[in-house]
Amino acid sequence: MKRTTALGLGTLLTALTALTATPAVAQDAAPPVGDTTHCESEPLVMAYYRTWRDVTVPESANSNLPDPNVTRMSDLPREIDVAMVFDAGATADTDYWDTLRDEYVPSLHAQGTRAVYTLWIDDLAKADIPLTNEAYRAYAQELVDTYVTPYGLDGIDVDVESYPRGDDLTRAIGVFDALGELIGPRSGTDTLFLYDTNQTGDAPLFQAVSENVSFVLLQAYGRGAERMQAAWDTFADEIAPCQFLPGFSFPEEQDRTHWGDAEGLYDPATAPSFTAHEYATWQPTDGTKGGFFAYAVDRDGKVWGDDTITPTQFTWMRNLAAVQDDAAGVAPAAPTASLAGDRVTLTGTGAPTAGVRVTVTGPGLLPSATETTVAVDGTWSVTLDRKLTVPMSASITQQLAHTAASEATEVRYRPWAG
Q1: Catalytic residue among 40, 134, 142, 161
Q2: DSSP character for 292?
Q3: Strand stretches in 121-186, DSSP E
Q4: Which InterPro entries does the entry link to (predicted)?
Q5: Where along the chain do its domains lie?
């Protein structure tokens, strides 16, 4: 049968069906839930950075521990998409704030990491302002002018661990709504407005202000993924799955609570038994989560009961970022790469466990293609079997087990450079 004949018969049958079929009743589509303006196609990694443990702050300002602080906020790896400036210590008269403005924020932005300031809900609920819209707007602007603009930060995170009531609740809602006009999805800007809580989504405050938030971060420390769906369900009527991030905690020094979420250096063999790994791979039944977050990121690699202050390699954060991307089928970013002076050694960083492939193109006798695997600490290295010469180009890609290959990083030998 010719195609034209088949099309003619189909048209006739469609017309006959239309004459006899019962007219369809129009169904109103369900309105979308939440404001997904700031959701991204790739899952996010967020982290709370404790300002009082920064190297610019004397250890004597915050505890009786003998070890000096050793971590700089600019040490945070590029796998972290959003870092929270979490200031719960004695930092007012330290060099931290000037360094945040002049060094840390520019460095973080250069690697693609945004930074936001954490406020507490009492900063809103118990503010010394009248219950008027004018006062809410003025105070919201004051918060932005005090905590965001001077440091070049990318928004505000509000930590909600109490339940404002009466006038406090009214004031908190008023300031929250006013902030939503300045930051977050309602503002029409790319600034972030985070709601960080250990409560369920049916809390009166959240029900009243949910339209303002970019993301909800649930402090699910020690809970485990088996309880996460029930927790998510309490938020599901107000926000989209891509706005929801469960979080775990690293063990703090002198902490009486043993969450057991992530301890010691990341080990691929044992990591799946920890809550942190569960959160990286967990998804709600009705969509894709926004990512995960970690508290006390400067304690990455520590075990509970170890009160010493030592540098971190961020092995959990680097590896969980890769685990989350792999579970979501998201190709990793292009690896970093550089050529050593011997012109055969290539080194760089990438997604832990990713396979790295190096191929060389150009005229002449080319080095052979070579492969390696990114180590747990996020580093990789290969040695070519022949020197890279002008104008050869080495192309380096990485690929996780369940993803496509990344975009390529190009490296050339440039004898005239520098």
Answers
A1: 161
A2: E
A3: 155-160
A4: EndoS_F2-like_TIM-barrel, GH, Ig-like_fold
A5: 44-328, 338-412
* Amino acid, single-letter form, for residue 390: V
- Catalytic residue at 161? yes
Tokens coding 124: 């809103």
Q: In which order are the strands placed within the sheet that holds 345-349?
A: 338-339, 345-349, 379-383
Question: Which of these, 280, 258, 277, 279, lies nearest to 269 by C-alpha position?
Answer: 277
- CA 116 – CA 189 distance, rounded (Å): 14
**Cα(403)–Cα(328) distance, integer angstroms:** 8
Q: Pick 338-412's CATH classification: 3.30.300, 1.20.120, 1.20.1740, 2.60.40.
A: 2.60.40
Please provide the average confidence, as pLDDT, over all residues in the chain: 92
3-state secondary structure 75-116: HCCCCCCEEEEECCCCCCCCCHHHHHHHHHHHHHHHCCCEEE
pTM of the model: 0.89
Asked if residue 142 lies in contact with residue 149, where contact means CB atoms within 8 angstroms, the answer is no
The architecture that CATH gives domain 44-328 is Alpha-Beta Barrel (3.20)
The residue to which tokens 């055969």 are assigned = 344
Of the candidates 43, 30, 32, which has an alpha carbon nearest to the alpha carbon of residue 215?
43
Q: Cα separation of 42 and 263, whole Å?
A: 26
